[in-house]
Amino acid sequence: MPSELRLSQPNAAHPKPDTSYGTGAHPGLLQLFLCPNAEAIVKEAVRNATDNNRGIGAGLIRLFFHDCFVRGCDASVLLDATTANPEPEKLGIPNFPSLRGFEVIDAAKAKLEKECGGIVSCADIVAFAGRDATFFLSNGVVDFKMPAGRYDGRVSFANETLRDLPPPFANVTVLEAMFKAKGLDLDDMVTLSGAHTVGISHCSSFADRLPADPSDPTSMEPALASSLQQRCSRGGDPVVVQDVVTPRDLDRQYYQNVLDRKVLFKSDAALLSPQTLKAVEHNAKNPGKWERKFKDAMVKMGATSR
């Protein structure tokens, strides 16, 4: 039986709250009533972070994704190690040491506790931060409402990250199955993969794609592969941008990169499969299409509870 983690500060998640305020209202509506400035406070924290480093914005979107895909959107990714459980999600192989943005969540949480203590869950803060990072990195283009009312979890295990988070070497069949397990369909998978238009990656995550394989029609574009091989051979585990064309902006360029074979991961190249190619082409060629779909997919992912 999994044991519950003791909550540790500053990344302490509140347990499932008592909503017996005598109203029977949805907890998200209660939050808006009891803490009307909640979203503005989170947005300010994200703005401050992304003004200094847009890469943190990419980290916040990834943090939201990684939280929702393991035990649902419950902020369990924030829980620190304890004596009872020395290996929580944040120390799982897909998360450590690459997952970023914890300090932004901490900053927002600290201000919210002063404004309206005990009202806003950490899970909602993570969701709002992912939404706000999307807004700032898209230069205001991708703007949407993110429902509130999530509960915070107390259970967090590193070994569940490998089970639930799609790996960078996954093929389209594996990706479809892993997204389906979270209530997301094939088009949601293609849409959410577009977040790879921002952020960085360690060379170890795509080393299996170097050098380019001329016999593989989905292999990396040779010039990019050669450039990356030189950079990645310098020792250690260097990082590179995921989108070599518009690395600072969240936009539909990712899909053109897929078509041009200028993407890093096997899971990106997998979108050239017959099941997903048409969606990639539509996203690449139609301004505004992917942006609208991304809003809906983020909200849908934000409702994941498993």
UniProtKB/TrEMBL annotation:
- Would the keyword Glycoprotein turn up in this protein's UniProt record? yes
Bias (Polar residues) occurs at: 1-11
Record-linked Pfam families: peroxidase
* Residues at the active site: H66
| Disulfide bond positions | C35-C116, C68-C73, C203-C232
**Which Gene Ontology cellular component terms are annotated?**
extracellular region
Q: Name the InterPro entries for this protein.
A: Haem_peroxidase, Haem_peroxidase_sf, Peroxidase_pln, Peroxidases_AS, Peroxidases_heam-ligand_BS, Secretory_peroxidase
Residues binding heme b are H196
What keywords does the record list, in alphabetical order?
A: Calcium, Disulfide bond, Glycoprotein, Heme, Hydrogen peroxide, Iron, Metal-binding, Oxidoreductase, Peroxidase, Pyrrolidone carboxylic acid, Secreted
Which Gene Ontology BP annotations are present? Answer: hydrogen peroxide catabolic process; response to oxidative stress
Q: Which cofactors are required for activity?
A: Ca(2+); heme b
Q: Where is this region: Disordered?
A: 1-21
Might you give the EC number(s) for this enzyme? Answer: 1.11.1.7
Q: Which residues are Ca(2+) 2-binding?
A: T197, D243, T246, D251
User: What protein family does this chain belong to?
Assistant: Belongs to the peroxidase family. Classical plant (class III) peroxidase subfamily.
Name of the protein: Peroxidase
The uppermost taxa in this organism's lineage are: Eukaryota, Viridiplantae, Streptophyta, Embryophyta, Tracheophyta
